[in-house]
């Protein structure tokens, strides 16, 4: 095959793969709601999803403000991103707490203090307890790097590779007691290529995470606004 032709096919394929067809459900229209939703972001790691939430707000894709970033790990790189973007943050180190419940209570207190409306676990490497789940029912979401219900729990990307599946992806879902099990809000599929390493696959999954997490936030925020209206 001629090089130009190959490039064309790859580009076309890439465009269709990275387009609407592999994100589901997908609205081509921006999800509109007023007023801004107040977000609390929980993170433990690099914070690339956190950073993309910030970008979506800046480019007006998402009508939100981040009331607080909560991290459980003082070395979490998300902190740097909060500082660079003038976003308030707090470190609530689980190692300083006597129990999971104590840690959860501190997290919940902070979220309530700031009247956070929607809590986003963006790479939060902790299981949250029932108190938080019940307090933020339908307002607590998580992103997971697999097409749930496949490959729950830790190292989902490695699990997908070891199971030799040819398509994996990422999922944003509501949080419930059983880990990685709440109702699905949005998913993106990512094909696994023969030549993929864990790193190359992770990069493509994360590229999709960065697209679907802000979309999921907007969808849930719209529901929150609508149900408030219905309750009036
Ligand atoms: C993401 O892959 C997410 O699916 C998982 O943790 C990772 C966090 O990445 N829960 P980052 O910290 O947002 O870069």
Description of the structure:
The chain has 232 residues and is of the alpha/beta class. It has a single domain, classed as Formyl transferase, N-terminal domain (Rossmann fold, 3-Layer(aba) Sandwich). It contains 7 helices and 8 strands; from the N terminus they run αββαβαβαβαβαββα. β3 (64-71), α3 and β4 form a beta-alpha-beta unit. α2 (48-58) packs across α7. The longest helix has 34 residues, at 198-231. It is globular and about 55 Å long. 5-O-phosphono-beta-D-ribofuranosylamine binds at residues 43, 45-50, 122-123, 143-145, 170, 206, 209.
Can you tell me the overall shape?
Answer: globular
Main β-sheet description: 8 strands, mixed
How far apart are the first and last residues' alpha carbons, in Å?
Answer: 64 Å
What is the N-to-C succession of helices and strands? HEEHEHEHEHEHEEH
Low-pLDDT segments, ≥5 res: none
Report helical residue fraction. 40-55%
Tell me the Rg in angstroms.
Answer: 18 Å
What's the short story on this structure?
With 232 residues, the chain is an alpha/beta fold. Helix content is 41%, strand content 19%.
Keywords:
232 residues, alpha/beta, Rossmann fold, eight-stranded mixed sheet, 7 helices, globular, binds 5-O-phosphono-beta-D-ribofuranosylamine
Protein topology:
Blueprint: H1 3-17, E1 23-24, E2 37-43, H2 48-58, E3 64-71, H3 78-84, E4 89-91, H4 100-113, E5 118-121, H5 130-135, E6 140-144, H6 156-162, E7 167-174, E8 184-191, H7 198-231
Parallel strand pairs: 2-3, 2-5, 3-4, 5-6
Antiparallel strand pairs: 1-8, 6-7, 7-8
Helix pairs in contact: 2-7
This protein binds 5-O-phosphono-beta-D-ribofuranosylamine.
């Amino acid at each position: 095959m001629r090089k130009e032709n190959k490039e064309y096919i790859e580009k076309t394929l890439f465009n269709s793969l990275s387009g609407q067809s592999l994100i589901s459900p997908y609205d081509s229209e921006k999800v509109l709601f007023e007023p801004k939703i107040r977000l609390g972001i929980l993170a433990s790691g690099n914070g690339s999803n956190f950073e993309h939430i910030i970008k979506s707000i800046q480019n007006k894709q998402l009508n939100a403000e981040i009331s607080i970033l909560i991290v459980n790990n003082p070395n979490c790189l998300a902190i740097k991103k909060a500082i660079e973007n003038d976003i308030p943050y707090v470190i609530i180190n689980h190692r300083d707490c006597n129990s999971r419940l104590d840690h959860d209570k501190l997290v919940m207190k902070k979220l309530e203090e700031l009247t956070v409306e929607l809590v986003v676990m963006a790479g939060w490497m902790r299981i949250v307890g029932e108190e938080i789940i019940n307090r933020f029912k339908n307002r607590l979401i998580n992103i997971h790097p697999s097409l749930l219900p496949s490959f729950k729990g830790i190292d989902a990307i490695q699990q997908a590779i070891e199971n030799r599946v040819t398509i994996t992806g990422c999922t944003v879902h509501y949080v419930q007691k059983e880990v990685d099990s709440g109702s699905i809000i949005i998913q993106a599929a990512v094909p696994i290529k023969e030549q993929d390493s864990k790193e190359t696959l992770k990069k493509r999954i994360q590229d999709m995470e960065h697209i679907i997490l802000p979309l999921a936030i907007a969808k849930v925020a719209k529901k929150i606004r609508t149900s408030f209206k219905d309750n009036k």
